[in-house]
Amino acid sequence: MIVVENLHKHFGGFHAVDGASLEIAEESITGLIGPNGAGKSTLFNVIAGVLNPTSGSVTMAGEDITGLEPHELFHRGLLRTFQIAHEFSSMSVRENLMMVPAGQSGETLWNAWFSRGRVAGEERALARKADDVLEFLTIDHLADEKAGNLSGGQKKLLELGRTMMVDAKIVFLDEVGAGVNRTLLNTIGDAIVRLNRERGYTFCLIEHDMDFIARLCDPVIVMAEGKVLAEGSAERIMENEAVIEAYLGTGLKNKDKVQA
User: Fold this and answer.
1) Is the peptide bond before 53 cis (omega within 30 degrees of 0)?
2) Is 235 exposed, middle or buried (CB count within 10 Å of its CB: 0-12, 13-18, 19+)?
3) Residue closest to 32 by CA, chosen among 250, 208, 243
4) Distance (Å, rounded) from C-alpha 142 to C-alpha 22?
5) Which of 115-119, 132-136, 212-216 shows the lowest per-residue confidence on average (mean pLDDT)?
6) Average pLDDT, the chain
7) Given CA atoms 97, 199, 65, 41 in this order, what sign does their dihedral have?
8) Strand partners, 204
9) Which of 33, 84, 233, 248 is most enclosed, with most CB atoms within 10 A?
10) Which residues pair with 20 in a beta bridge?
11) pLDDT at 179 over 60
């Protein structure tokens, strides 16, 4: 679904992404792991249009999307979340979801004044959809709560809910488990698996929790120093000497020395 070829992103003399090439298969849950500074979030930002690449290409379903703006990718069904959740804190959880779909009639002053019936009908439909999303995510009891009052994990669920309001095709999740307790992380994991299996969502996620990665992801792609280092099942990745060296600074043959 997504093909990245020889992608580079330089910040002056620093090569954050340095010739990365990878593929994300349709209806897969792909994990992206690597040590801090490996270029994972920068890669996400380039794919999602937040940053322009220095060189290289990104295609989606065979179409070149290199350098497209985030709003253009949004309309193609490509969405990206961030390590720190972004919500309208003074609005309710339901209202946060209702804000997501583009092209609503109420966005224009003319319709707000002269097509009130149509605007009201759209809002009722959006409210029903938002409630369905919240029920799917098992946080329907928070529908009227101000989003700013949610816990970190609940905000991550709300971000996932936003992707459901526009029926996304592929979602890039950046450290969805950061600051989330184990119970809510399991709830998030369950929602991702259900969206993948029941609704055909494709996911690519950055995460440091290897138990979470192993439970959800196949394949797992490892980055180090801006390049793709390895790819395979979580089990094979965790046995890969190059991966261990990237994380620990030594290979398997010196593993005992590290543990000593």
Assistant:
1) no
2) exposed
3) 208
4) 39
5) 115-119
6) 87
7) positive
8) 30, 172
9) 33
10) 7
11) yes
Q: Domain residue spans in the chain? A: 2-87+163-257, 89-149
Strand, helix or coil for residue 7 = strand
Distance between CA 166 and CA 71 in Å, rounded? 13
Architecture of domain 2-87+163-257: 3-Layer(aba) Sandwich (3.40)
| Contact between residue 237 and residue 230 where contact means Cβ atoms under 8 Å apart | yes
Q: What one-character-per-residue DSSP string does 124-177 give?
A: HHHHHHHHHHHHHTT-GGGTTSBGGGS-HHHHHHHHHHHHHTTT-SEEEEE-TT
pLDDT score, position 117: 65
Paired tokens of 258: 């590290």
Q: Give this prediction's pTM.
A: 0.85
CA distances from residue 201 to 116, 167, 255 in whole angstroms, order as listed: 35, 8, 39
- Report the candidate in 124, 123, 143 with the shortest Cα–Cα distance to residue 133: 143
